[in-house]
Specification:
The protein is α+β, with helices and mostly antiparallel strands. The chain is 36% helix and 14% strand. It is built from six helices and five strands; from the N terminus they run αααβββαββαα. The longest helix is centred in the middle third of the chain and has 22 residues.
Length: 187
């Protein structure tokens, strides 16, 4: 029979062995993003309206435009190929869009989904509209749909909540990929 001391030592060893962090992960520190998250960086005017005032370009991140809608790259993407689809007119309420604007917006959403599918070949997508600031809209006064490509094993929804995500492609590379696609498709 084992002595009490040996039993205690065995229990301690088991307890030590069982203690470990739930997941091991690499941590990517981006202290510069803190100013954005804390909303210390303030744009004057609406960035989407500024984009709507000129032709598609990397400077305004617009990759496609119709008479009533546009597709822009998300400046702070959750994944490669994350785009926003929005009306040209400054409007924060879906029901205040005219029928023409509403229909054009949703046809443009379909164009965006097709472009993301062709350019990035994701296995899934998150499509969403945060309607109002209490629903999570970062720019609540100008409607915008998010189209976020997803792949099996690309983590989970946590980066959307935690405000941090490692994206392996630059905005310049994303813009070029979409520009090449739209030039080839001649849409």
């Amino acid at each position: 029979m084992a002595s009490q001391g040996a039993k205690k030592a065995a229990k301690k060893a088991v307890a030590k062995k069982e203690f470990r962090w739930p997941l091991q992960r690499n941590i990517f520190f981006r202290p510069g993003r803190k100013k954005y998250v804390k909303k210390e960086i303030r744009e004057t005017g609406c960035v989407f309206c500024k984009s709507a005032e000129s032709e598609p370009s990397f400077e305004n991140l617009c990759i496609y435009k119709t008479e009533h809608s546009q597709i822009v790259l998300n400046k702070f993407p959750y994944n490669n190929g994350h785009v926003l689809v929005l009306p040209i007119r400054h409007c924060g309420d879906l029901v205040k869009l005219s029928d023409v604007e509403y229909n054009d917006l949703h046809l443009t959403l379909k164009v965006a989904v097709k472009a993301v599918q062709k350019v990035y070949e994701p296995t899934g997508m998150n499509l969403g509209l945060n309607h109002g600031s209490s629903a999570g809209a970062g720019i609540p006064d100008h409607l915008h749909y998010h189209v976020v490509p997803r792949w099996s094993g690309d983590v989970n929804f946590f980066p959307l909540i935690a405000e941090t995500k490692l994206v392996i492609e630059t905005l310049e590379d994303s813009y070029k990929s979409f520009a090449d696609y739209f030039a080839k498709e001649n849409i």
